[in-house]
Amino acid sequence: MKVLPFKIPKTQNIGLIYQEDKEQYFYDKFHQHEEIQLCVIVKGEGTLVVGDTINKYSSGDVLVIGSNLPHVFKSDVSIIKESFMISLFFTRDSFGKDFFLLDDFKELIPFFDKSTSGFRLIENRREVMNIFLNLQKSNNLNRFIGLLQVLKIVVNSKTVELATFVYPRRYTDNEGKRMRDVMDFTMNNFEKNIDLYEIAEKANMTPNAFCRYFKQRTNKTYFTFLNELRIENACKLLNSGNILSISEIAYQCGFNNLSNFNRKFKEIKAISPSKYRKNSGFK
User: What's the predicted TM-score (pTM) here?
Assistant: First the structure.
């Protein structure tokens, strides 16, 4: 199966796709699909990469991932052993090319505009979660009605953007496989020493060509992305209440010296690691 672009399996002549992912891990390959994904995290925690940006997700989150927006969920089973997500997949044309262009749906225009970069709901999440849970035993018509109910709530709720940069072109199969291999390797090996030659080899490119390629598609250098991933994982450890010292966390997340870790942490989070841990309720 070609992972990126990714085809959402569906029955012929079905406009709205309902899907439950109840596994130890969510699908963990960097991918994109034509459909907008509107989903709730019933149970689970981990890292979510959307476009150029590294986010964390946890139980209770309501997320929207736009059409052809590359993303990957990386479940952290050290915290929660089972992951459960309910998703609705649809496109702007799923119910007819002009369906969402009708005056009846004018108030939904901001949803489609914001979905381009993906976003997270920061209020009314419980109300949306309850609608999704009720969809589990619903028929197709009631799931469609549930979608409209959720969309109405979402457009009237506060949200926060997931991606700050979106590559304007859809990935080809070859490009998608290349970026998938780079992302998979990075997310599985971020705590190790990764040099430019090694990661360029994963992309079957020269180091200079790889630097240009990655920057063009994410609007940041590879090592900026790598450091952001490492810092996000450091935040998890600082938040977890474990007995690891800050220096031990730094080394576990791939930094070879404490001063560099402190500098990068403050650069990305605008706060020192020690203050971040203190604000989380741990000392």
Answer: 0.83
